[in-house]
Amino acid sequence: MDLDSFQSLLGNLGQDAWVAFQKIPGSAVLMRYVQSSYQNDPVRSAMELVLVLFFIRYLMSPSYRTDKQNYVKLREDEVEELIEEWTPEPLVSEQTPIELAESERVPIIVGPTGPKAKLANGRTVTNLASYNFYNFNGNEQIKEKAIQTLRTYGVGPCGPPQFYGTQDVHVKTESDIAAYLGTESCIVYAHAFSTITSVIPTFCKRGDVIVADEACNYSIRKGLEISRSNIKWFKHNDMDDLERVMKSVAKDQAKTKKLTRRFIVTEGLFETLGDSINLPASWNSRSDTSSASSSTRRGRLVCWAELVAASLRRRMWTPNRWT
Q1: What is the DSSP string of 117-163?
Q2: Tens-digit pLDDT profile for the chain (323 aa)?
Q3: Per the database record, which ranges form the Aminotransferase class I/classII large domain (predicted)?
Q4: Where do the structural domains in the chain lie, given as residue ranges?
């Protein structure tokens, strides 16, 4: 086929394609759109053409198969040779002389950890680096109950009803805790950290105002962040500064004339400092108190007495680090 015949064939094919395209409903509208688009913005038309060509190529390309085996097949002797030559890297790099010298000065605990720990040199010291300060892990009665629970309910990666499904042991635990704290009911979460970070966003939403103690622990701060509320801070246990912040919030609300919910978020027993809340009963606002570090009888009194004095309406109580 010479060049003239080929050009004639292309012309006939193009003309036939054009006639067939004109028979498609809506083709005239599409042509007017392309013409006006090219006249007004030729760059946009070029980009649209590229996208159309890419879409056509995508439709015409073969499907991707994960079971397609395109790797190089090795003989058995080659596989054995590669295995013998392979040397795994150590999981932990070797210690430097400085690290060795420092590790020799690190105290080594012998036996279980708790409020009191026995070191390898024979000394018994107070363990200030553990959350097991109530020694729940060393309580023989709790150990026996844990063994009985394992034999009855089994063991798994999750324990709370939100993951494991509500069972009689969950209902009884929630009932016992509610009776212990003197509340109507309670809900069991997987961990103390997730309790606070979940409860605060449940009650506090975007647009609400939260006045929080600046000494609140990290989990409370994450809950405040997730709530997306307007956060105001007052100095730790400084009621004068709290009054100043609350008056400022009330003044702003009077200007905007917008109904805004206000919350005071603090701790019953502060995790970072160890002191207790000092909130008088003169505040007409909703208050959330976390008592993650007060789960003994004294802790219950710390939380209960302060909450009653402040007319607080909600409590977040967590037996700190039972797990």
Answers
A1: EEBTTS-EEE--S-S-TT--TT-HHHHHHHHHHHHHH---S--SHHH
A2: 567 777 777 777 777 877 787 788 877 777 777 777 767 777 777 888 888 888 888 888 776 665 666 667 888 998 899 999 998 888 888 888 888 888 888 888 888 888 888 998 889 999 888 778 788 888 899 999 889 988 888 776 666 666 767 788 888 988 999 999 888 888 888 777 888 888 899 888 888 999 999 999 998 999 999 999 999 999 998 888 998 999 998 888 888 877 788 898 888 888 888 888 876 644 545 444 444 444 444 444 344 334 333 333 344 544 443 32
A3: 124-279
A4: 97-126, 140-181, 192-317
Strand partners, 212: 233, 265
Going from the C-alpha of 155 to that of each of 80, 132, 158, 192, the distances in angstroms are 41, 22, 8, 20
d(CA 172, CA 149): 13
30 SS3 class: helix
Q: Which DSSP symbol is given to 89?
A: P
CB 245 within 8 A of CB 211: yes
How far apart are alpha carbons 7 and 145 in whole angstroms? 91
Nearest to 274 by CA among 300, 302, 313, 304: 302
Q: How many CB atoms lie within 10 A of CB 151?
A: 9
- Whether residue 263 contacts residue 287, with contact meaning beta carbons closer than 8 Å, is answered with yes
Alpha helices in the chain, H assignment, sequence order: 3-22, 27-40, 42-60, 76-85, 97-105, 140-153, 161-164, 168-181, 192-203, 218-227, 239-256, 297-310
Q: What is the CATH number of domain 192-317?
A: 3.40.640.10
Confirm if 235 and 257 have CB atoms less than 8 A apart.
no
